[in-house]
Amino acid sequence: MDDRAALAEVKYEPYWWEQAPRPELPETPLPRTVDVAVVGSGYTGLSAALTLARGGRSVLLFEAEEPGHGASSRNGGGVGTAPFKLSFRASEALLGRERAIRLWKEGIASVDHLAELVEREQIACHFVRSGRFLGAWRPGDYERLAREVDLLRGHVGYEAHMVPRAEQRGMIGSDLYHGGRFNERDGVLHPALFHQGLLDRVLSAGAVLAARNPVTGVERQGGGFVLHSARGAVRAGAVLLATNGYSGGAAPFLARRIIPVGSQIIATEPLPQELVARLVPRGNMIVDTKRTVHYYRASHDGRRILMGGRPLLRDASPQAAAAPLRRFMLRVFPELAGARITHAWGGRLGFTFDRLPHIGEHDGIHYACGYLGSGVAMSTYLGYKAALKILGSPEAETAFDGRSFPTMPFYSGNPWFLASVAAYYRVRDAVG
Q1: pLDDT tens-digit map of 365-378
Q2: For residues 170 and 210, is the Cβ–Cβ distance under 8 A?
Q3: Contact, 77 vs 17, CB < 8 A?
Q4: Quick check: 332 and 254 in contact, CB under 8 A?
């Protein structure tokens, strides 16, 4: 089947919305004053709001669209213990050994935090600690990953092992890769159901959510802040910016430091369960070592294959990205040549210039962002930590504290350089 036939009846919206459509909340009157205003209702904002509301603070969440309209309901649902784009050796060179060890341990802690949250709150989101297979695109990548495993085991106690090519069929029903690494503590979940569960608990805790109400500016006034929005102004004692790849004019400090990167996903039609089980035997997330990374998995019900990637890096329409994603899917799994694609969608991730997440405070305004495409656990965790900072808790400390948040000259939020970077990455992937 060619691309045109396979994509003939695609819905250009997330497959996840079939089970968890975006909630249409009634318009809520804006309070004149609140203890804390949170801008953004993704995982970061909701995690923070839940902690703050249960800590006795009045909380107002501002959302420009429907709750979870951005990456929190659009991502692939991978839950990873390494939410940064640095190897252990690179993080050690940047931060020193002691802080690098703390950084990696906090990545592990972020997944433990999510697992505890899902269990405690009884959020039905198909969370499973199924692991993650990182496929080596080139033979040299396998050797590099093996050296990294030795370092991580020795310094961090990281639970991972190498899978030689002769054994990788136990991880993925394909011979495309040259073996790979299996991260044992990673997992998968249904991202939109996880978001919906968080949202339900936030609203039950008494927080107010103002949907379809973008913030247009934040200014310090007296001992607090005034947030200007499409529906009026609100005074707040504290502010948390939780906008990540969707930071814009209301958060110029973040816009200058966050690189919005486009990511797209397709989902196949329902397939025989035995076929899906053969292609993804463990039901885990699969990622590769290419610079133009692809990530994919089986759906939570074991009936579909979801293929994601960032082939263009910039925002691209799902219509433009669907065919390239399908063609890569067929390189991995030629058996799917006759499968139709039912859903295609995209969203924006938040990358940073130092390839690390960030949490901190600027001019008195708190922020947590920069999850680099691996933010399901870390965004939830840093939202919780940001709330603890606002509450003045001694448990708020993180390995990310005290770091500068770099930008580059003349960058104001428009990543004009991504097209060239993507082209360069594609050449490097092709020639090694």
Answers
A1: 999 999 999 999 99
A2: no
A3: no
A4: no
